DNA sequence: TCCTCCTTGAAGATCAAGTTAAACCCCCAA
DNA sequence: TTGGGGGTTTAACTTGATCTTCAAGGAGGA
């Protein structure tokens, strides 16, 4: 295959009219340029330049080759320009994962700001459950993903590079007419007599309830198993019981309920952004992470 | 500037799906390929490949770069092909295509003048039918070719670079004693009652007849199918019927016929010179084109 | 669990791309 | 004829990129 550097030299010799001029342009010695041209002619098997008293004149083959060289160099310049565009975030795409409660509250804020800031970048979001997110991260279906953990089952930072986005407190949901509805904050210890509405058994918030109840010295009585936080809020609103939920899960509050802080008496979950350690990240991904953390900082009050 | 060898490696890794496969193709060690890719990524300042459990997948930048690489490599292959062609043709030869009617009238004038002007250049002419000419253009058997089209089936200028040489009017051939033999010009409308002599059914001039007859409001009655214009003229001369022909097809007029202009009442065909867009043309080809256009200009009166 | 396939890193060998220095060629002027 | 100046070429050498080998490490499948 032809050597592009040599082609470029040929082009400059033809355009500038002499080996010396081309050598100056490339900060080479004339001798070096001469040798490269000789090799190029050997490669193509025919003379490309006619040595004349005053400089060089291309042969037919030289003409053809310089014309092709212009195209090749133009194509290479185009390639570099395109790469610069991607690095400059005028182009690119990224795919990220999230889970439902954040997909319905925090993430839309991030996406909205990111799209405003980098309108050219194609953004794909996949919402799934925890185990699927881990799998998608591992096999590369998503480049990064939002995840969560509690203090008793921390994610191992050796498996993924983890960045804490914010702490998502556990809040108490009570009916509008409940005796605690007006309180700013209550303690788990005050709730020993209550009936509870929980998510399906294996849902993590159930464990939050059991652990914090146990810490407060009682064993919760379960009145109802809900399928999602909307259903849970509806049941709370009609007085069937009270419930726990991550703060972000109830940013869209049901009109018939009140949200009360539990302070430090209930554990919070950590919201994390994860990506594979071995993955060299594209500029678009780094930019997205930065936007996401900005939004988290700006809106931290709402999730407390 | 990007290193083409590395680009080629990237392309092969992407296409073959693994570093090992690309290394085998190039008879390199996998380690060497891995190192080159790493350097390429360092050069462009961003990841190009995502290392995955099952092989490699290109990033956005990787996709863009491989696409450009294909073009660059294609361009370089074209350069080498052109050089090989020049080398094989002993400096300054060219091959062109034509079709019979021009090969028997216009083209000899061009060749005669060109040989006088450039005696050192070897000239090859291949005469063939339309479809073969297209194929020979595409696979490089001819560097340029004369072609023709009518207004209802124009050649696509995206496929070939086209230069109009001249318009070849459709003329009427009548016997010496025919009622219209003395006329300078007639209209298709005057020919509704005539018997026609045509070329074989799929010949384009048959379509010219049907279209212009239909435009003039009649359906032509066919008296004879001729194999070439000489035969057609002979049949016309004995009064079997009249015929249509491109003006250039009857520059060598049969003594027993008269040629009458049809003005705008019959469509003319366009005579074109075509060459491949991606072909950088040798000086000999450019010179030939220029001579050809000169001859067309000088002799335009004869083809009208 | 081992085995296999693949990728990566470190260290060294090799060869092409550059250098310098000197010669050469051709035209031109004294 | 001779000398000088533009330019190119050759020879010999240096250097650094590009390969290799060897070894380690990771992930999937029997």
Task: Describe, in plain words, how this protein is organized in 3D.
The structure is a homodimer of 304-residue chains. Chain A is α/β, with parallel strands linked by helices. Chain A folds into three domains: 4-87, Arc Repressor Mutant, subunit A (Orthogonal Bundle); 93-146 and 275-303, Periplasmic binding protein-like II (D-Maltodextrin-Binding Protein, domain 2), CATH 3.40.190; 170-265, Periplasmic binding protein-like II (D-Maltodextrin-Binding Protein, domain 2, 3-Layer(aba) Sandwich), CATH 3.40.190. Helix content of chain A is 42%, strand content 22%. Chain A is built from ten helices and twelve strands. Chain A has helices at 4-16, 19-26, 30-44, 60-87, 100-103, 106-117, 130-139, 204-216, 229-237, 283-298, and strands at residues 49-51, 56-58, 93-98, 122-127, 144-149, 160-168, 170-175, 195-199, 221-226, 242-246, 257-261, 269-276. In chain A, the strands form three sheets. In chain A, strands 4-3-5-12-6 form a five-stranded mixed β-sheet, with helices on both faces. A five-stranded mixed β-sheet of chain A has the order 9-8-10-7-11. A two-stranded antiparallel ribbon of chain A has the order 1-2. Chains A and B meet through α1 and α4 of A and α1 and α4 of B. Chain A binds a DNA duplex (30 and 30 nucleotides) through residues 5, 18-20, 28-36, 38-39, 51, 53-56, 278.
